[in-house]
Amino acid sequence: MTSQSCIKIQHLTFYRGSRKIFDDLTFDVPRGSIVGIMGPSGTGKTTLLRLISGQLSPDQGSIVFDDDEINTLTRARLYQVRKKMGMLFQSNALFTNLSVYDNVAYPLRERRDLSESFIRDIVLMKLQAVGLRGARDLMPHDLSGGMARRVALARAIAMDPELIMYDEPFTGQDPISVGMIVKLMRLLNKSANMTSIIVSHDIEITFNLVDYVFVLADGKIIGQGKPEELRNSSNEQVRQFLNGFADGPVPFHYPAKDYAADLMGEN
Amino acid sequence: MFGVVQRIQHLGAAGINFITRVGEAGLVLLGAIFKKPNFHKSFPLLIQQMYIVGFLSLPIIIVAGSFIGMVLALEGYNILEKFAASDELGPLVALSVARELGPVVTGLLFAGRAGSSLTAEIGLMKATDQLSSMELMAVDPLQRVVAPRFWAGFYSMPLLAIIFSMFAVFGAYAVGVDWIGLDAGSFWSNMQASVDFRIDIVNGIIKSIVFGFFTTWIAVYQGYACVPTSEGISHATTRTVVFSSLVILGLDFVLTAMMMGGW
Fold this sequence. Notes:
- The complex is a heterodimer.
- The mean pLDDT of chain A is 90.
- In chain A, the strands form 2 sheets. In chain A, strands 6-7-8-3-9-10 form a 6-stranded mixed beta sheet, with helices on both faces.
- In chain A, a hairpin with a 2-residue loop joins strand 1 and strand 2.
- Chain A is α/β, with parallel strands linked by helices.
- Chain A is built from 10 helices and 10 strands.
- Chain B is mainly alpha-helical.
- Chain B has one domain.
- Helices cover 87% and strands 0% of the residues of chain B.
- Chain B has 9 helices and no strands.
- Chain B has helices spanning 2-33, 39-54, 58-82, 89-127, 130-136, 141-180, 184-194, 197-224, 230-260.
- The termini of chain B are far apart.
- The model of chain B has no long low-confidence stretch (mean pLDDT 94).
């Protein structure tokens, strides 16, 4: 592990039941970079984030974050390591019984020994960064999908983590909010040297934001490189994904028997 | 022959599955209650959950207790009167309620009202990634979510059973004395003479503590281990009510046998 890598994934293999999600996956995430993970639906992008955060364990291979091999850590050590991580969940995962303010304050109250007045300052700064300082007293059920996403983002960055993982951060956002979130991500990356991993299907926004992209399909990396390199890729799978072609090497349909035979009820 | 082998295999698989589930439930309980608590953070959560699990269960407990006491008084009076023993209505109601109906009916109502709510709440927290997000914030959901709910149920259940029994006796008094016209003095004095604090009251409280332990354990485990879908949560909630009810009725027999055997 070099100090240049924040995350080092080696020979990662992971199964869900009998289905192989990742097959001998190997790649590094450089420290302080913004990396995009892209690929068709169902390729395990969210699963990869859960493996990196230690919520799932690989069947084979290793995931190293800051010199700690995540899948071999004790629970106590894993919790120590997670203090350096933040994650924006696809479902937002806001605590429904807590207000916007208390949601953002939650990790600070739980994991930092800070005075309530200091916590207040941090929470208001984070909410100001996502444009929701005025919504601090609202409950999660009062928020629109886009607002809830921004509150979840404020909570994810509340602890100023070394690594932040964004799972579909642009879903449900209007163009103004997208612009603001992209600006915030860049700021966090530059000013705090935060390493960011972004899982997204939004190719244009992601390509304009990230330093490096990995495209996953069939449990493997089918393409990787800087955004401009991927745009010029000759790989058929990458081209199909980036251009949104229905026909190509990446199947749109889940594996099934012949359509006509299925309609005719033949075995 | 093949069918028999298959049935034995199914039986074996079901047995292994059951033992695995019990083991998992044990680990959830261990993780929740045998870790050093942070009183500064845990105590407010416990009070909040005692309000939700215990205090908000009071209406159903009070209403059910009152009506059961009233029905017992009516039924009891009709039978006792045939033997010219209607003065024994007070002891009949008090003993029935303190030893059996109080803990058992409170347990069943508690499983239906609070147990199902605990399962659904924890299950929904799991389905909406709230438990995962806690994990990722290095906060143990067993400590912050499961433990306060478990202890709240454990402490609330005996208190609710005592309140149930009190209101059952008041209900019986209302019917027996105010409506039927029995003598209030003999109602209370016969009750006082017949009910033994150690044998009747304390044993009833012990039962309610045991029922509270198992009902809440089942409820929090079912929520924590449920399949995080609407159907999975629905099944888990149903399992909480069914398993809790069966455990209460089964344990009631075991505890009654032990108590009558002079353990």
